[in-house]
Amino acid sequence: MAKSIMIQGTMSNAGKSLITAGLCRIFRQDGYSVAPFKSQNMALNSFITRENLEMGRAQVVQAQACKIEPSVLMNPILLKPTTDMGSQVIVNGEVVGNMRAMDYFKRKKDYIPVIREAYRKLAMSHDIVVIEGAGSPAEINLKQDDIVNMGMAKIADAPVLLVGDIDRGGVFAQLYGTVQLLEQEEQNRIKGLIINKFRGDKKILEPGLEMLKKLCSKDVLGVVPYADVDIEEEDSLAAGLEQKAVRAAVDIAVIRLPRISNFTDFQALNLESAVSVRYVEKLSELGKPDAVILPGTKNTIRDMKWLRQSGLEAAIVRLKEQGTIVFGICGGYQMMGEQIVDEDKVEGEGSVRGMGLLPVRTCFESEKTRTQISGRVAKQQGKFACLSGIPVSGYEIHMGKSVLQGDGARCLNLLCQKEDGCVQDNAAGTYLHGIFDEPAFRAAFVKMLCEQKGIDGGKPSGISFEDYREQQFDKLADVLRESLDMEAVYRILESRV
Length: 497
Known about the structure:
Blueprint: E1 3-9, H1 16-29, E2 34-37, E3 40-42, E4 46-48, E5 54-56, H2 57-66, E6 77-81, E7 86-91, E8 94-100, H3 101-107, H4 112-124, E9 128-132, H5 150-156, E10 160-165, H6 171-180, H7 184-189, E11 190-198, H8 206-216, E12 220-225, E13 250-255, E14 260-261, E15 275-280, H9 283-286, E16 291-294, E17 296-297, H10 300-310, H11 312-321, E18 325-329, H12 331-336, E19 339-341, E20 352-353, E21 360-377, E22 391-404, E23 413-415, E24 418-420, E25 422-424, E26 427-430, H13 439-453, H14 465-483, H15 486-494
Parallel strand pairs: 1-9, 1-10, 2-9, 3-6, 10-11, 11-12, 13-15, 13-16, 16-18, 18-26, 19-21
Antiparallel strand pairs: 4-5, 6-7, 7-8, 14-17, 19-20, 21-22, 21-23, 23-24, 25-26
């Protein structure tokens, strides 16, 4: 069985996912077969494996840090919020249904055998498993039947490293308070403390670190700086979503829908020096970008209504009429059509009129489409002609099917003998997540925007997103090696709880 170590945090977005990914890369660099694990993840960013199963992207990123193929064993339970009170529940990559929060809470312990088996299979085939917790282990109202923090640590008999976020203030109170709210057995599992996202001179912290060590009876294993690494973040607290300024010649505005999903689709665009990607959630922020992108969403109809009520729909339609490129992915593509029909109440919202930018009608169905897929851009005319024939790949993950209306409607991509997406004039949409990760498609898309603006965008980056990501993982590993007492981490890994 593999040795295990668990990363827990004092709060959401304390940096657990990044620390986990960094340790995964360090252990891999040091010659170990290593895998990530998170028993339960709540996120709208998800991924489809080779087996056409769905899992959280955070564990996909961590698997990439380990240089192994992502597997749903790494994330046996995924919760995708559909409303403020409920989520779609995905177990071992398959949808089991939508549940209200209280109903799921009552059923959590039923999933313990699923979690045990997934962890066992990972542990049998690797040297080290790095486990990530969720939120905080000190949520005393949720500790009953816990399956993701100390409950998971007990299942795996794993030592715990506790991460606090100094950037948000009160890190000493975070760490001390978290430890003190735990039962003694749980406190004993914590073998070290980590302060994350520090800016400034570490010497200023030293008196506090000594006091914290005495108060908690725990060693502080290191102070990790606010690392300048570009690795995918998983949820709505991601710093990248706060980018509002235009920083380059080509201005791409991504609409920050209330239930935005898979916003990591646009991270690769930042590799192109001519491009600035910003996120817009208010009409006053939209301005006159060179392109508007409508991203995926976990509730297309509800977000379509929000787009209409906010005034952004009318503004985007005007921009399209003025020649601005409008591009949609997944739920964003569905919104751009003429109608979204939900007769079976899959989203529980009924049907709604779309934006009318594309001759497409979408009908929701209870079965989710999940598949990795590849193909080429179909032959195009007009503004999108430069994309013709370019290879594309990624994955589909959506409810419903979209059908082109009228003889003049053109598809965007030819994917594995089927048609995908739609193009009309300067508007286009696709179901393909990850389409901008492909260097050729990304370069052609940016070139199209530059030519439309009458500027020279310079030489394309030419780098694959995969190669770029590898560089960032190694950079993160270097930061952690310099910041953490890795000898102590290895001793903790070898120790018995």
